[in-house]
Amino acid sequence: MKQLFITVIAILLGTIAQAQSKKYVAAMQEQLALMDSAKTTQDFQNVANNFERIGDAEKTQWLPYYYAGLALTSAGWRDKALDKDANSEKIMALCDKAEAIEKNAEIYTIRNMALVQQMQVDPQNRWMTYGQQAGKTIQEGLQLDPNNPRLYYLQGMSVLGTPTAFGGGKEKAKPIFEKALELYKIEKIKPLYPHWGQKQTEKMIEQCK
Amino acid sequence: MRVLGIALLMSLATISSLAQVKISGRVTDIKKNPLTGASITLKDTYDGATSDSSGKFQFTTAEKGEQTLLISFVGYKSWEQKVTIGKEPFNFTVELKEEFNELKAVVITAGTFEASDKKRAATVLNSIDIATTAGSNADITTALKTLPGAQQIGEREGLFVRGGTGQETKQFIDGTLVNNPFYTSSPDIASRGRFSPFLFKGTVFTAGGYSALYGQALSSALILESIDLPEKSVASFFVSPLTWGGGYQQLSPNKKSSWGVNYGYVNLFVYFGLVKQTPDYFRIPEFHNGDANFRFKTKKGGMVKFYSSFSTGKFGLRQPNIDSADLKNAFGLINRNFYNNLSWKENLGNGWRMNLGAAFSINDDDISLQIQNLSNNAVTTGKSYIDNKNFVLNHRQDFAQIRGVLEKKLRGLSAVRFGSEYWYNNDKSKYNTYTTILKDNFASVFGEADIYLTNALAAKIGTRFEYSSVLRKANIAPRLSLAYKTGKDAQVSAAYGVFYQKPENTDMIYTTNLTYTKAIHYILNYQKTTNARIFRAEVFYKKYKDLIKTIPSTNNNGFGYAQGIEFFWRDKKTVKNLDYWVSYSYLDTKRDFQNYPQQIRPNFATEHTASLVTKRFVTKIKTGFNFTYSYATGRPYYNFRYDNNGKYGIADQGRTIDYHSLGFSVNYVPSVGKQNAKAFWVFFASITNVLGSNQVFGYNYSYNGLIKQAINPPARRFYFIGIFLSLGVDRTDDAINNNL
Prior knowledge:
The complex is a heterodimer of chains A (209) and B (740).
Chain A: H1 2-19, H2 22-37, H3 41-58, H4 63-78, H5 84-101, H6 105-119, H7 123-144, H8 149-161, H9 170-186, H10 198-208
Helix pairs in contact in A: 2-3, 3-4, 4-5, 4-6, 5-6, 6-7, 6-8, 7-8, 8-9, 8-10, 9-10
Chain B: H1 2-16, E1 21-29, E2 39-42, E3 48-50, E4 56-61, E5 65-72, E6 79-85, E7 90-96, E8 112-116, H2 127-131, H3 140-144, E9 169-173, E10 176-177, E11 200-206, E12 220-226, E13 234-239, E14 243-251, E15 257-267, H4 269-274, E16 280-297, E17 303-320, E18 327-349, E19 352-373, H5 384-387, E20 391-409, E21 415-431, E22 434-454, E23 457-468, E24 473-485, E25 490-501, H6 505-508, E26 517-530, E27 533-549, E28 555-571, E29 578-592, E30 608-618, E31 623-632, E32 636-642, E33 648-655, E34 659-668, E35 679-687, E36 698-701, E37 708-711, E38 719-727, H7 734-739
Parallel strand pairs in B: 1-7, 9-12
Antiparallel strand pairs in B: 1-4, 2-3, 2-5, 5-6, 8-11, 9-10, 11-12, 13-14, 13-38, 14-15, 15-16, 16-17, 17-18, 18-19, 19-20, 20-21, 21-22, 22-23, 23-24, 24-25, 25-26, 26-27, 27-28, 28-29, 29-30, 30-31, 31-34, 32-33, 34-35, 35-38, 36-37
């Protein structure tokens, strides 16, 4: 029974792999490279638009939308002057598009970052709304994939960013980062699939010491 | 692998570049400003580009034949056009139209302070802000006195706005009027409001020019919107030397409904033992307050809310009699209040929304005043001007209201609203042996339209028609306001409106041959809002007509005006962790009404009023420190009497000393941010008038006019100390903690 199950999965995965046309893979790889070298908000918006275009043309791939969202969150972390509400609105729309194709934990990492960025606009007043919603996305993501290291990494970041007096701080964050690293080490990396976060996690564990 | 892919793609690109067509162009908004970051796409292909900082874009495509070019950008309507790609390059210039967006659109702010928990940046204060405003002791109207427009009145409850009396401000909860928003007070001592700020998620304080949906308030409307379902089930308790109580709020497992009950008891026996009061309280103030609520979501996403409260209170105090050093006035009060509010909001589909509301309240007061001698026994002096002050009054006010409003959303953010309401008043008072009953059936219909021409320009046009059976008269009140966005965060708005209010029942018991009192408002407002800062400036002019005069007879011959300028600045950014606001009001007003002999500055209005409110939460020690400093120039006071020739006029007048008040409060919240905390504690302490400034609210005159006596608060300072505890389990982080 178990074997049959694995076989079915393998066949399914095979079909999916085939569905990824050469043109698609090449375009995705090009954009991923472009995203790695992106520096300015404009660079990231450009990459995000390119990814979204690929997603719109492909219609059955969630990864392009995911990466479009990721590119915009990268812009959000770097650009202090960026209108976070508008940026997040766009990111959430991309997540919705991705989720319509496949609901998975990775999409929740993007939602989480978008909400955290909105919260940081005015933490005192937005903590109750955006902060809570951000916390919820982690929970929802974990329900879909309890072993997603990026969710743990993001949770660690949120705990680290919370003042010690409010139940955050290095001590509280460290075990969460360690759990994330543990999961990163056993994560099987699939082509084109997200695998970011391990280096940052290692850095954070260092910082928490 | 990735590098290989790029190399492959690049070589492909080189091969096919001969057959490619260049598409270029520029994207702007309708004002020709370049839009950066817009996505240009050849639909269903990978080909496209992003506009640069000058709005320009360019890309090449190998696609041929009929294609669709799509340009999209957040906040703007997408642009789409069919193109046939041949060999020639294309060049486009495209203007994108802005989408209507509630958060970006201009808001009509003339006269209005919105204080809600909504995320719109125009929000000025929320319920936490109200509760943590030092000096307010979590009383809504006291906190609102730190906003421009309101006077620092300490001897009477209510909001005295822009030259209006406290009675000219009305309070509405979920659309329906609150007939008795304050506890019944004794002479010269202000009482608190009946409702806790935590009952409301939104507070709109309008200092004038308010919507046609509301009426019967000559100066100002305080529009309160009650909270929806709680986030979790919570039991709460509070204890202090003055008051204790508790409550329970249950949220159903499917999170679609909730119910709750609360009880609170106030007894000032211990407090008065510790803090000496000027009046001699022969009956220590004691109050019981109970309330119950239920709320549920309807199938279509609507909401039904019911709130009911019952309270009783009693107190008695003796004050020196101004006409004779051998006498005292003993004032006694017993109050019972029953308040009910039912509301139903529903989405009817197709852009229609319905708001129904019903309210019912009974307020029953037994008030007495007895002239007593120094050994606290009732006496008769034989002097009518003293003996006539003795009275026993039973006053019962019944009020019922039903109201329905329909709203239809139109294109963009535009909407029309219309509705009707009916008020029933039955006021029965028995003054000594003299009974009067005043009944009124009051009906109104109203309509208004929000017209958004663009995100930057909006108008609100409304009219209200009212009829009162006791006056046997109707009125029509037009309202108009406009708002225009002058920059990204700045806007100007203007409002005009006619406002009517029935004469007070205390006047109508003498004659009902009266008409509505009337005010016309003109307001011009400038507001600049960023996330952490708000600046407002407002000028206004008001004209009063048909105000009630009581001497020599009760009639509508009163009139007056008010004009002024007000500023407000709130800043949460400049100093880290410090939130402060400053308000200043200049008011020039005169009126001839009530027992005034001529048009004069009323005794409840001063020229200059200013407040500074600061709040700082120190996360390290989990403690918030709040200060409020209020200042007002002295107010005029008068003694009106008939002179020897029988002419009525001002026998004496003056101006009180300036008013200063520094309030301080501290709240220690040990469980803030604690994960999975079952108990949430708040320790709260506050003190009003820290500096002990002498506060004089006016003067009372003796019958012969020779003696005047300052009206002071019952004690220099008011202290409060208390502990609040709520028990409820926050489970948001369970999943993470279970996996560690």
